[in-house]
Design goal:
Tetracycline Repressor, domain 2; mainly alpha
Length: 284
């Protein structure tokens, strides 16, 4: 059905994970409750703009999506949705989302969300992805922005604590995507995308997954160090970090492709539970 194709253009699973981190950013920004109209408007606005960026990604990556096994059935790559319609859909989502943020939330959040859209759809998808094996590291800043957007939606200002949340996702992004890139190495080779395992080899990439995971564990504990969070989050971050290190260490010493995919899947669970832990610690 056509509506399912348009929903797929938005990459709903990715957007939902982003919105979870944005929601946690909102509630961490204040000691008490957040007005529901702010929560609703922010989630809808940020979600629409994120969906817009995802739809643009489908158009820009049409050629490589058609080559790669993981993405060849996407609606634009498969021809179920034309490039013109996908771009029109992206434009509509982006305009509506930014309008909602600017009118019903605040201008700062609208501007930062627009910058995130440009960073992901323009800088990362349009250039970095094909230009450097560090594409994920550099471009990861756009994907790390949602908790900052949630924070500014409530406070209309930025803070060091909000940027710390961004830093956590920024450190999480390389081991998350490089684990997938190891598993999908042949796809990236065929599509001529310079992901790290293509340009530097699998073992080199595995080492960097492990090193970035160590960095992530350290960064994830900074909210406790600076007094932003307490014991509940500290225990949660430590337990999740040790588990992520287990998978990264196992990946480094394993030649089985399934280990890379399990590491990738755990990284998603890791980020979800880490931010839920932040929320529980904040209120309990």
């Amino acid at each position: 059905m056509m509506w399912r194709d348009y929903l797929e253009l938005c990459k709903p699973k990715v957007v939902l994970l982003m919105l979870l981190t944005a929601l946690v950013g909102m509630y961490l920004a204040v000691p008490g409750a957040v007005a529901m109209h702010i929560v609703f408007s922010s989630i809808v606005g940020i979600g629409f703009v994120a969906g817009s960026a995802a739809a643009i990604n489908h158009v820009v990556d049409k050629r490589i999506d058609a080559i790669m096994a993981r993405t060849k059935k996407r609606p634009v790559a498969k021809g179920r949705v034309s490039e013109k319609r996908a771009l029109g859909f992206a434009f509509l989502l982006g305009v509506i989302g930014l309008y909602i943020l600017n009118v019903y939330v605040n201008t700062l959040t609208a501007v930062l969300t627009f910058a995130t859209l440009m960073g992901y759809a323009g800088v990362y998808t349009g250039y970095l992805k094909r230009a450097t094996p560090q594409n994920i590291v550099i471009g990861g800043l756009a994907g790390a922005a949602p908790p900052l957007l949630g924070w500014t939606a409530v406070t209309n200002s930025m803070s060091a604590h909000a940027l710390l949340l961004v830093l956590i996702i920024f450190a999480w992004t390389p081991p998350h995507f490089w684990a997938l890139a190891i598993y999908r190495l042949d796809d990236y080779k065929q599509a001529e995308i310079p992901m790290l395992p293509v340009t530097h080899g699998i073992q080199y990439t595995k080492l960097h997954v492990l090193l970035y995971t160590v960095l992530l564990v350290v960064v994830s504990l900074l909210p406790v160090v600076v007094g932003m969070s307490g014991t509940i989050y500290g225990v949660t971050a430590s337990a999740l970090g040790l588990r992520f290190l287990y998978w990264s260490w196992k990946l480094y010493h394993s030649d089985e492709g399934v280990v890379a995919m399990r590491t990738f899947r755990f990284s998603i669970v890791y980020l979800m539970l880490l931010f839920v832990g932040l929320l529980f610690d904040h209120y309990i």
